[in-house]
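Below: protein 1.
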Amino acid sequence: MNKKMRILIYSLLIMGVGAGYLMIEPDFKAQAQDNEGIKTDLISPQDANFKDELNDVAKELRCPTCTGLSVLESTTPFSNQIKDEVAAQISQGKSKDEILKYFVSSYGPWILRAPPMEGVNILVWLFPILLLTVGPLLIYVFVWRKKGGSSTTKEVGEMRTAEEILTEMHNALNELKKGVKNS
């Protein structure tokens, strides 16, 4: 396998690992097990899945006062109010989608941690995928393709002899001299 091919394969491998790392969602349930600030009188003891439902909805909502945290991760008073509202709506039997729609209608789509896949936001979802698929091709076309012109150009990794270098320099110098005389 030649050097160009190895570099291209390594580049693809590095981009694939990077993309995989970016797509991993941290386990927010492990980070926020106690859900401080939630009114426990709203929690129905007969519903064993209540806490899981609460965590599932709260990790989808962005903390309005924190940078980069979900409502589930945050312990600010405003996030605790949102968690209380989520708990109340779950107790009323509302589904996850209904609760998320309620918050989007109150705060706008910004409140969601992941942008909805509609309208212009589709570009937010498709651009990284497009970049990872077309990027290596663009790298090959603009960086690694063999440049046309000089027949003395060698493949990457091949050595030119001193005679070839001198001949190339002599030809370039003659072209420069011709350009100066014509000017």
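Below: protein 2.
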Amino acid sequence: MTRMLTLVVGLMVTVAAAAAVKAGAMPPQYPERIVHVPAAEHEETIRTGTVAARHTNELISRDLDLGIRVSMGRKVASPTMPEAEVHSTFGHIFIIEEGGGTLVLGGELVEPKPRGTGDWVAASIKGGRRFQMKTGDMITVQVGMPHQWVEVPKSVSYLAIHTFPDKYQPKP
């Protein structure tokens, strides 16, 4: 009798677990992939803007399971500022690691030109909000939002977490 009861309870637990997984009550499965960026590599990218071993500024390549890409941005003193940009498929989270400068967000691109798939560039932004960024600051740049570094007294190094919201991705 005890054996039969154990078998029935075991079967009930198995069926309940299977139903829970199907209903989404159990944790999802995940890919067996972990990206670890050692502090020395991170610090190297802050100093140089490049991960020497990979000849890129990417700390984490675009990961479709996470929906992100992580790179290190580095801008040097004005007036060699980059063009203003807009991305139609991804946004950013910038975390200032070293230095600082003025970042303009919003407004509209002046005489925009397409660059690549879904990206636009321009020499400047009309309007927008100016943010004085310094070490330790963090800011978000929404998908489709113009952004441009306009004043950098010495240099600025920032971690750029690129976000890829599903609703903005091209449909197959």
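Residues 15 and 162 are 41 Å apart (CA to CA).
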